[in-house]
């Protein structure tokens, strides 16, 4: 089973759907009721610059962990969101 088209329940009612995936890039649909909706948003894999929380699992993210973050400019409303790269590897397996 692949991740494509699998909806993920995020924190605070966020709905996330992976549309495309490579090792370094995600294209996702991000729906955050009352705040923002991105139909096809590009996210890139990188090291976390700050500590935070995974938008899907609520797992703690430490600075330096591998994460996916929104990569569009200008910065979107969900620019601070992160998804643990390790989480996506587990979901796909």
From TrEMBL:
Query: Which Pfam families does the entry link to?
Result: DUF3331 (PF11811)
> What is the organism of origin for this protein?
Paraburkholderia dipogonis
InterPro entries the UniProt entry points to: DUF3331
Domain of life the protein comes from = Bacteria
- List the top taxonomic levels of the source: Bacteria, Pseudomonadati, Pseudomonadota, Betaproteobacteria, Burkholderiales
> Can you say what this protein is called?
DUF3331 domain-containing protein
